[in-house]
Amino acid sequence: MKKREDFDIGKFRVFNGSNIYLNKKAFVFNIFLEPEGPEASFYKTRIYNEFPVLKYRNPTTVIDLFSSTLIHVLRMDRKLFITDYSISEEKEDYVVAVEYFDYSITESCIQIMSEWFKCMNDGKKFDFQQKWEKVQSDFSHTIYGDPQIYSFLEAGVKNKIPCFSLETEHLFQWGYGKKQVRGFSFSFDTNSIIDQTYLSELNNIHEFSNHYLNIGKPKKTKFKNTYFFILANGMVSLVITKKNTNQKYTTIDSDEMITNFSLIENIFSNFNIAIMEVIVEADSITDEWNKNKFNIGKCNIGNEIPRERAVYYVENADLANQFMVSRFSKPEQARIPIIAGNNISQKQANTIWKKLKNIKPSIYFASLINNEISINGNPIQLNENHARNVEYILRNPHLEFAVFNHQTIDVTKYGYFHEGADVFILDSTILQEDVLKSITRPEGILIHITKNEINIFEKNQVCSKISFFTKEDKEKLLLSSLDPILKRLWSKYN
Q1: Are residues 240 and 359 in the same domain?
Q2: Of all residues in the chain, what percent carry a pLDDT higher than 90?
Q3: Most exposed of 139, 146, 175, 477 (fewest Cβ within 10 Å)?
Q4: What is the pLDDT of residue 208?
Q5: Is 98's pLDDT higher than 80?
């Protein structure tokens, strides 16, 4: 058996959602550090020369220095929204979990880091910048390297909107169940196909405008300038001008053209289009449209927006954030009630469903209990991947309430996938399963069942204790304790 070397890495695994290492999507790997190897100070000069900002964090151990440097590398010199990592121990290895976007890029970064530290040990030269620039170039060709797409992903994270990729559909989803929005770049599933088809014909826009808003027929005059409006959910976010002479974009002060803003917003608020670019022609953008010096030239919907301008919109306006806030003014508007646990039975899930039907008879309910997905009481074919089953449920655009049972083996192998639970029922005295408590949302409820007692926690404080002496009593008391909780959850999200 080959002797292990300092900074040997292996046992790569990926979690597409919350897991036992991080409460979010994570790339996890093992790393071996020689117990008699150099201290952190040995590496700091080289590391700080590349990344001076790490001086302020000043990691004290080698593994912390390695991990914090890796996080900085994973930001791709673009300040990507990657911040979290965890370090644990497994026999003679450390286990490091880091946030990630692209699996292969993350693996490449870890390999580079391992090689770099090994070369420092051996006193060898290592062209870190060259290798890192190559990875950055590779990253730019992934879906996460696209500025438009990334801006919406980051906006989701900053606004605490859960987001995950739908790999087979080549889309991303923000929010769960009936609260969701799906899309890619500037195109979203909230767009009406009918409206998209209608607006693709410029004559239709002119006819509509003339019929309802008295804008008049399109002008055939040759105007001096072309201007580009960008709208998100019917509201103008940014206006730029393309000067005919030098092809440069310049942001225009919106205060000078409130009348023109209102016109564009009024027209397109009548259509179900998430993001649109409207091209207008005028001698001056400050000339009001009703002075007969203004013409709508064209509109581009979603991915039809030319890339150069799409990138400009992303970089010069808070477009993605504005879109997220317009769809989800607060995090609850992106979520549905979720109950999770480690020992929830199908019978318990069905009882919860029946209780919810007393609140709303037509409620759309789904559960994942061990090896069975159930939608409104109907069993569905299961995927072997536990996380994929959770994704399948949360992907459903009609879903209003979900119950998930996570066995320890599922959590260890696949993670939870969903970001937090409003109620977590921990029915076990096995200490290793306490890690499952982390899935409870900060404002959520933890129900911890011990040998003969049901303890209900809110904000880490015991608010109720219920004793029982038989299995039947436990079942009855647990389910009855959920009655007021279910009503609270329904009111919270609806």
Answers
A1: no
A2: 59
A3: 477
A4: 87
A5: yes
Lowest mean pLDDT among 162-176, 180-194, 196-210: 196-210
Please check whether residues 201 and 325 belong to one and the same domain.
Answer: yes
Both 67 and 83 in one domain: the answer is yes
In 125-272, where do the E strands start and end? 163-166, 171-174, 181-184, 187-188, 225-232, 235-242, 249-251
Give the CA count within 13 Å in the CB-facing half-sphere of 117: 29
324/377 same-domain check: no
State the Cα angle at 113 between 52 and 15, rounded to 5°.
Answer: 110
Residues 211, 304, single domain; the answer is: yes
pLDDT surpassing 50 at residue 431: no
Is 288 part of any domain? yes
pLDDT per position as a tens digit, 453-481: 999 999 888 999 999 999 899 999 999 99
Cα torsion 376, 378, 382, 385 to 10°: value is 10
Hey, is 389 helix, strand or coil?
helix
**156-162, long-range: CB < 8 A, 24+ apart:** 156/324, 157/81, 158/81, 158/321, 159/321, 159/324, 159/325, 159/328, 159/331, 160/331, 160/334, 161/324, 161/328, 161/331, 161/334, 162/334, 162/335, 162/418, 162/419
Q: Which position has the higher pLDDT, 423 or 207?
A: 423
Is the pLDDT assigned to residue 1 strictly greater than 60? no
Q: pLDDT tens-digit profile of 233-254?
A: 878 888 888 765 566 788 876 6
Cα(173)–Cα(163) distance, integer angstroms: 5
| DSSP assignments along 200-241, one per residue | TSHHHHHHHHHHHH---SPP-S--SEEEEEEEETTEEEEEEE
Q: Residue 295: which CATH number?
A: 3.30.470.20
Q: How far apart are CA 208 and CA 199, in angstroms?
A: 10
The 3-state DSSP class for residue 333 equals helix
**Banded model confidence at residue 428, pLDDT cuts 50, 70, 90:** confident
AA identity, residue 420: G
